[in-house]
């Protein structure tokens, strides 16, 4: 339920990224490269605990795919 994210203290950029990551159709889902370049990941201030977990998961997935995070 995205309304819980929207109503919480999570930034709009974080909500946008989660929406793009959770698309059912893989062809419409955000790529790892695009996710790592998403405004929420690349430019943030004072992330919440949930936002940190999402970011950490993105980086962990990238490390598993290539052996190191894409920078």
Describe the structure.
The chain is mainly alpha-helical and 71 residues long. It is 61% helix and 0% strand. The protein contains five helices and no strands. The N and C termini lie far apart (31 Å). The mean pLDDT is 78.
Q: Tell me about the largest β-sheet.
A: none
Query: What's the SSE pattern?
Result: HHHHH
Unreliable residue runs? none
Share of helix, binned = 55-70%
Please sum up the structure shown.
With 71 residues, this protein is mainly alpha-helical.
Secondary-structure map:
Elements: H1 2-7, H2 12-21, H3 32-36, H4 39-42, H5 49-66
How would you describe this structure in keywords?
mainly alpha; 0% strand; globular; 5 helices; 71 residues
């Amino acid at each position: 339920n995205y309304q819980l994210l929207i109503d919480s203290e999570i930034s709009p950029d974080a909500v946008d990224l989660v929406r793009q990551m959770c698309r059912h159709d893989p062809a419409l889902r955000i790529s790892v490269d695009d996710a790592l370049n998403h405004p929420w990941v690349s430019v943030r201030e004072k992330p919440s605990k949930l936002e940190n977990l999402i970011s950490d998961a993105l980086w962990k997935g990238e490390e598993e795919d290539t052996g190191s995070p894409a920078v």
